TrEMBL record:
Compartment(s) where it occurs, according to its Swiss-Prot or TrEMBL record: Membrane
InterPro entries: Cyt_c_biogenesis_CcmB
TM helices/strands, residue ranges: 21-43, 55-74, 99-121, 127-148, 160-179, 199-220
Signal peptide: none
Keywords: Membrane, Transmembrane, Transmembrane helix
GO biological process: cytochrome complex assembly
Protein name, per record: ABC transporter permease
Superkingdom classification of source: Bacteria
One Pfam family this sequence matches: CcmB
Phylogenetic classification of the source organism: Bacteria, Pseudomonadati, Bacteroidota, Cytophagia, Cytophagales
A GO cellular-component term linked to this record: membrane
Source species of the chain: Hymenobacter glacialis
GO molecular function: heme transmembrane transporter activity
Amino acid sequence: MLREITTLLAKDFRLEWRQKSALGGLLLYVGSTVFVCFLSFSLRGGQPPAPAWNALLWVILLFAAINAVAKGFMQESPGQRLYYYTLVRPQAIILAKMLYNALLLMAVALLGLFLYTVFLGNPIQDAPLFVANLLLGAVGFATTLTLVSGIAAKAGGNGATLMAVLGFPVMVPMLLLLIKVSKNALDGLDRSVSHQSLLTLLALNMLVGALSYVLFPYLWRG
């Protein structure tokens, strides 16, 4: 299993490197949205208030995650999926996709945070808590949207639209927790206030990962 996961992960990295336009488009989206936010608030005299700063950051990261993960299964033809089915186990496929998307989204999240603080200021009072919450959110987006992407790809039709429709209601509880913890980090509250929310986020990530591991083989054979 581990060998299959590492092989599939290396394949995804090679494909991403060969198709630099997709990665470049994702980075351009993050950079341009941050710059537009900077232009909007600079006309009003500078840095946005902390609640608006927090909300805009998560909106940018959410749509960046959808754009990044959507191509995972949808760029593969039915013939490619059938070929993979003859070579590796479906559990290895879903775990490799989740791991690749988690690494990609963590890198995008850190880059987005860096650009965001450069252009829109840094009101964060507890940086370690904020970064930990950001990385946990990136992993949560990756695990949830990877499974939704697999479902949308199997359904056929306009997979990107179907993924957005299916993914957003699933992401709302996670987003509420992420925004709550990041607001606590912005306000500099004691970390014990955020422990329960962080544990809930971790449990959600593990639950989605376990469900994907159990259910994806049935979806893959469908």
